[in-house]
Design goal:
CATH architecture of the largest domain: Orthogonal Bundle
Order of helices and strands: HHHHHHHHHH
Protein name: TetR family transcriptional regulator
Distance between the termini: 39 Å
Organism: Caryophanon latum
Shape: elongated
Number of helices: 10
Structural class: mainly alpha
CATH superfamily of the largest domain: Tetracycline Repressor, domain 2
Keywords: DNA-binding, Repressor, Transcription, Transcription regulation
Largest sheet: none
Number of strands: 0
DNA-binding region: 26-45
CATH class of the largest domain: Mainly Alpha
Number of domains: 2
CATH topology of the largest domain: Tetracycline Repressor, domain 2
Helix content: over 70%
GO molecular function: DNA-binding transcription factor activity; transcription cis-regulatory region binding
Length: 205
């Protein structure tokens, strides 16, 4: 099936932004690489800035959808948080180029795009906060830890993965996520929560 013009433009822009940097790429170059016209470009994206925003929107929408599914897969906060981490890190296997380009070039994005980006990132942060709060209420997570700081620590640790993760590296993303889960959960769970986590781990073998 032939790719749509929108898809071709997005893929061409990803390649060019990755190779040269956002500020060094013109719409003319994107159009040429995509094999379309300026009319085709502007029919799908109102500007090059809108294209950079769409690169972010693609992967953050994927993260939100997969995280919601992961959260719904269990009623235990420990198991929910573990599943949500796997959903979060899976994005680096699926949308590594999108993530790398966006974080490397986000400084060029105009202020008009800040609100929609902030809205989706807030949705994600609140999902994690809600699970941590539920875990505290059920005695699975430590009460002495700040929910906000714990959430931001989790997001910050995983987000930085794009800087060092390689598809052909020694460890797969699944193996790396096991490390993340171990570090995060052992840091925030109570003895009760640890028992649930260990039971869940045994069931997965």
């Amino acid at each position: 099936m032939k790719a749509t013009i929108r898809t071709r433009v997005l893929e061409a822009a990803l390649d060019l932004f990755y190779e040269k940097g956002y500020n060094r790429v013109s719409v003319d170059e994107i159009v040429e690489r995509a094999g379309t016209s300026k009319g085709g470009f502007y029919h799908n994206f109102k500007s090059k800035d809108a294209l950079l925003y769409e690169i972010h929107n693609v992967f953050i929408s994927y993260v939100l959808a997969q995280t919601k599914k992961a959260r719904a897969s269990s009623s235990s906060p420990v198991e929910q948080l573990s599943a949500m981490l796997y959903a979060f890190t899976n994005v680096f296997d699926v949308y590594m180029r999108h993530i790398t380009v966006f974080y490397n070039e986000v400084a060029y994005l105009p202020a008009e795009f800040e609100a929609p980006i902030h809205e989706k990132r807030t949705q994600y942060r609140r999902m994690i906060e809600d699970v941590i709060e539920a875990g505290k209420a059920e005695g699975q997570f430590r009460l002495d830890l700040s929910t906000t700081i714990t959430t931001m620590a989790i997001i910050g640790m995983v987000n930085w993965t794009y800087k060092w993760y390689r598809h052909d590296g020694e460890l797969t993303m699944t193996q790396i996520t096991k490390h993340f889960n171990d570090v995060i959960l052992r840091g925030i769970v109570t003895e009760q929560g640890l028992a649930i986590a260990e039971q869940h781990r045994m069931q997965q073998r």
